[in-house]
Description:
A: 2 domains, 2% strand, globular, B: mainly alpha
Amino acid sequence: xxxxxxxxxxxxxxxxxxxxxxxxxxxxxxxxxxxxxxxxxxxxxxxxxxxxxxxxxxxxxxxxxxxxxxxxxxxxxxxxxxxxxxxxxxxxxxxxxxxxxxxxxxxxxxxxxxxxxxxxxxxxxxxxxxxxxxxxxxxxxxxxxxxxxxxxxxxxxxxxxxxxxxxxxxxxxxxxx
Amino acid sequence: xxxxxxxxxxxxxxxxxxxxxxxxxxxxxxxxxxxxxxxxxxxxxxxxxxxxxxxxxxxxxxxxxxxxxxxxxxxxxxxxxxxxxxxxxxxxxxxxxxxxxxxxxxxxxxxxxxxxxxxxxxxxxxxxxxxxxxxxxxxxxxxxxxxxxxxxxxxxxxxxxxxxxxxxxxxxxxxxxxxxxxxxxxxxxxxxxxxxxxxxxxxxxxxxxxxxxxxxxxxxxxxxxxxxxxxxxxxxxxxxxxxxxxxxxxxxxxxxxxxxxxxxxxxxxxxxxxxxxxxxxxxxxxxxxxxxxxxxxxxxxxxxxxxxxxxxxxxxxxxxxxxxxxxxxxxxxxxxxxxxxxxxxxxxxxxxxxxxxxxxxxxxxxxxxxxxxxxxxxxxxxxxxxxxxxxxxxxxxxxxxxxxxxxxxxxxxxxxxxx
Lengths: 177, 419
């Protein structure tokens, strides 16, 4: 039973991930990405990592892909206008694949066998404890990276006008160039 | 009654789960439909008109007392439902057919899936423990509700985009921006509640049943509902709930004055009906979560938990403390509260006029979000002081900082609202 569920979710994840890459219509691709994320969440649930699964759904499926769709619809991309693969994306795919293999290998070496002392139960409390102690610095760094990206977007997309007499630097919505 | 319990226990667990799931859906779906009639009646009441009171099938007209049902408009509900199912289900020629047909289905799935993690009542077993009635009693209850209900936005986006027409598209774009904006405040507003619940040394939980359990303890502070302990969190949650369910005054996505019908302009018949039922189902689940978190769940009154009522019933007759009776009682109390919340939704709808879109965005990002963050910081500090027993000086410092921050925000002439 568990095997059958695993294969279903694995097939859903991989199949729709492939469809994301191969689809020429951006909206279809975004929705396939959504399906892929749902499949991934299912796999996490099978691994007893329900928290991770629902955070994935909440953040990526619920918000990030919705914003992708939002942008795609605003830009009104016509399907098939661009070639699916250029030289650059092929190189990126090879590099990404190589990184994936290295990463999987490293994780495979460093992960202790199930049931050993270092194996921590995936409870809410343990997640929180690790995030706020061992992995505090990485979490903060990722947070700052997101903040920098956000500031960059604001600087690029907004036109700063002269400060009004109130003395507060007001952001004026820039007109589309 | 024992026979019923035995029969139930003899069923296969899978079958039990299917029956429970179908039972919950079988209640929510018709309730969603019935809400349409209640909405019409409540709006009529608010505006001083009789409301729908004419429909009466001729073959039941002879039944004595039927005119009462007629005046309540019950048969309008039948007529509406019948119309929805039997009228022509048109499919406009200019739409993206696949996504156009998919959108109403996508609307229903999250609306009916979220209920799995919502406890609907409780009973007291032989050992005196309060056992929640819930489909999936998972540790991350609330997160599951938020995660699945956040998928509801795709129905609106897809419907708006697939309709391939200007107004629905604008509705879909507005919906996606609004739902994502208010999700932040909503999530931030419930964090203080769970900070409060998860006392040091505890297990660490996001379960909604635990939240109710926490509000049914003995003592003054133990029996207090969270609406009294953290009113600002409750207000932020409620306002975000209105925005998340696309209800007036936040129904930007379907404002008929500027967008015809918004994202569902091109829909008709039962496809439109599914959007409608999904909206009411979202309202019900949202109200249920609100009541579980801030209004004591299935406890009848603050400081009077269910277990106390069970004790009183036991004093009258031991038959009344049977789990089935207590379960039904708690379910009745809980559903009663949820229905009252639905009434509040309608009350607000016919009282507060619709916001403008820029007002909605300003309110979400410039008012609610800072309020939610401030509220979170305040309770994080307060809970730290309480748990570490830091003493009066720290409480005084917290009070001073809070007053100063509030003053700085509200008295600053540069920050006057630009609405």
